Amino acid sequence: MATATQRLEQALNRKMIFGPGRIVTRVALLxxxxxxxxxxADLPTEKSFFIRIDAxxxxxxHVLLALLVGFALPxxxxxxxxxxxxxxxxxxxxxxxxxxxxxxxxxxxxxGHKDRSICLVxxxxxxxxxxxxxxTGGLRDVFVILTPLDSETKIPVHPSYHKAxxxxxxxxxxxxxxxxHAMAVMTGQSILLKNxxxxxxxxxxxxxxxxxxxxxxxxxxxxxxxELADRIPANVACDIHPxxxxxxxxxxxxxxxxxxxxxxxxxxxxxxxKWKLQFWHQRFGYLRKLSVPGVKVDRKGRIDxxxxxxxxxxxxxxxxxxxxxx
Amino acid sequence: xxxxxxxxxxxxPHRLACLLAAVVFPLIWVGGLVTTTDAGMxxxxxxxxxxxxxxxxxxxxxxxxxxxxxxEHGHRLLGALAGLIAIAMVVATCTTERRPWxxxxxxxxxxxxxxxxxxxxxxxxxxxxxxxxxxxxVGPAFFVAVIAFCVATSRWWHQQNKTRDQTRLRNGLIWLxxxxxxxxxxxxxxxxxxxxxxxxxxxxxxxxxxxxHISVAIFIAFGTFMQWIISRxxxxxxxxxxxxxxxxxxxxxxxxSLGIGxxxxxxxWPGWFRQFNFxxxxxxxxxxxxxxxxxxxxxxxxxxxxxxxxxxxxxxNRRFAAVxxxxxxxxxxxxxxxxxxxxxxxxx
Amino acid sequence: MKRxxxxxxxxxxVLACAACGPAEPIEFRYNAVEQLKQERLFMDEGEHFPDSxxxxxxxxxxxxxxxxxxxxxxxxxxAILDLTRLNMAAGPVExxxxxxxxxxxxxxCAHCHGISGDGAGATAALLNPYPRDxxxxxxxxxxxxxxxxxxxxxxxRILHNGIPGSAMPSFRLLPDEEIAALVDYVxxxxxxxxxxxxxxxxxxxxxxxxxxxxxxSETAPEIDSMSADEVPDAIGPEFLEDIVARWQNAxxxxxxxxxxxxxxxxxxxxxxxxxxQGRELFFTKGNCTQCHGETAAGDGSTVNxxxxxxxxxxxxxxxxxxxxSWKPFMALGALxxxxxxxxxxxxxxxxxxxxxxxxYRRIANGIEGSPMPASAALSSNEIWALVAYVKSxxxxxxxxxxP
Lengths: 326, 348, 403
Hints:
Largest sheet of chain B: none
Strand content of chain A: 25-35%
Largest sheet of chain A: 5 strands, antiparallel
Oligomer: heterotrimer
Number of strands of chain B: 0
CATH architecture of the largest domain in chain A: Sandwich
């Protein structure tokens, strides 16, 4: 008989994940096997299936359900699995540029705080980092998220990420700023919270599905995990220094990119098939006003991504009007 | 003097009215307890008590049963007693009283007490909080009317026929007491709303009612103090208004203290006291004797203030108001300033 | 004149009658604040959920949880909610001939915590701190860590002891079974509120589509004709199961308090070396002075908001100091944002209980919903030392000097 703790774990494993569509549930990722098992298993019908079915979502769902019932369940493999040999992978890249006059970035509200001297960066009050734009208009810290067409689908994961999932990511507190400002993690991946400052912080991470509030004394560190996937990034805050903020997005797959300082991003080894690519930024929300050449962006900031044969897909420069700031 | 006394009506209406007031006052007290202890729905039927005739309900079950039943059934019995006394009072008044308006007032009192009893019954039968609110407002109104009746049938009232005094006519003694009576009643109505707050009411409603309650309390305190100052003037020595003004000041001061106390025993000390040790340690003692008695005392003193404003304003008006030609031309005699000293001295 | 005044009084009474009027039947209040937050987060300006979403959520909750007068308990929640107790706590205030009470929640709780447990009862705006909103499933004073609900024992304790310095009374004069009934009802409201929030989040992720899985052939199902057993399956049973599972397992997630080190004397202010070690930690590794201040008077850091406010304030990025921006939320029932203050430890008042192990758990787990963080880097002995120091503060004379 299962103990109550086991029941809880099961419940947590089945915990809803807010995807773009219906809740992804009961997919026994953590229940039935490890990543390795998932990676090496073979389901050759997947590729042709994804390529052939056109955009009719209803038929897609029905066929997919039939597939799941017909193939997956009897083999005790509840979701599409990927194999290195059969499944070609593609890199998706692009660049997001802000169009229009960038508003003046305010300074962080440090003045008057007792830790002011420690919170200065190079002796100066740093600017707010919720909107960082370089001189060419490149927009930093846009989350580029690969999402399945419907929530029943799991994204196959390239073996190269297997190792990455076990590495520990670092979130530093330096000069009363979170470094980095935006990060993506996989569910269950370790995050090391560090405090390089000479003053104490706390690190409060809050999203719909995850919550932590960790005490970080000067020089202290602590390790945490986000166990459940979120729809949009969690807010990271320090109650002691209210201007401090960062974003962490937890997903149950590694295909989340964050634009670098020139606005460019790259998603590596994305599985073939039809997906959606979603764009989200702290100040814009979903980038529904993004213009991508030749592609329609829906109101949830998503574009269709059809990866057929190409090894690389370059989305090019995508323009975002400044006026879309919320 | 004796000749005058012979002309006066029987004292029975006054005695019965005083008895009625003496019953209604504890009735309000018990009624307050019914709400404070949420005993209102302890007996689900009406006019019977659990199928018994109200008066035949076994006395042991009543006295030794649950506390809320004790209170609620006691409230009903006391209410019934008040009704019986009111009937006796009406009979006595109609047979002995000559003034038609006093007779009408007596009948109105009986009607009001019946109405109040029906309201109480309806509150139980219909299970309605809004009726409880009206029931809570009519109670003190009835009390005020009974007190007014007591004053109107008293010896003092009749004596004023000889000594009405318009030389010192001033609005501070004519209109202020009446205004204060009205405002005090309004304050009581706000209080009834606060006590019988709808559970689903939005926070803003309650907030504004509290703001209103406090503002009116400040206004009443100010008005009472003004009245007291006026009554302290030398010329009002021994004319029968100082005592009621003194009592009113005492009552209003204690009522404000009780109001603050009610808040504290119900919701703790307000935020700005939090850094004080006594406030930080204070735990609201729900349903404790302290809490229940303090809150009920606040309700009861409210009615008492109303009663004294009634006495005070009736006396002031009787004594100092301009004589209306319709009713009192036959008896009222204006007297001069010097006369009054002679009369009051002889009273003493 | 006299007639006049008695008529006046009657007129006032009649006016009062007219003003009160019969109230509408009591219903649970829809979490409109959460809906607006979801709309702000995920929709364009001026876009709203369709009206059908609200009806759908209301219907689902009604089937699964009943009404304030007639609570329901679905099978999923059978293990943690006792229907007899719920019935004792629900409904209007009345009692049976043997004294068995009904409507305990409305008698004791609803005027502050609200009929729906939204912490916005009639008196809420005047209380500081605000009454707890149960619908987030967050509770401050409990023996379990963050994101785990409190145990029955925790809730019973708070009801029994009250919270000093707040409007939360002690119900120690109530019989045990009445307190137990209220505890179950609080859990009931909390689970209901959590499910409501989850459903609203789900609706926003579905872009306003129906929560029910509609097959191609079918039209929308008749929600109102469904039974309490059918609804969870129709919307996906995991919604409710997950919430219930957390509550069900709270007992096993209680934070163990290891034995206090030698030198710690429960009930004494003098813990010897431990106190000075704790003082050292208070200023350094404990990171306590950042908020509680060097004098421990709660004057250390800037003001902040608690999670119940931040939930609708910070999540959709509302400026807490811009009154205009949070007005729409207040119109829907949110209470005015009010900063929280770090506790003044010198008063010797500990809201979650002043026993040594209560303070130990506060330091080890943090306080859910507040800025108070969980200690990540302190050993159990170090936490005990902090407990010793904190307990000694109320007596200490030298607390104002930095070591």
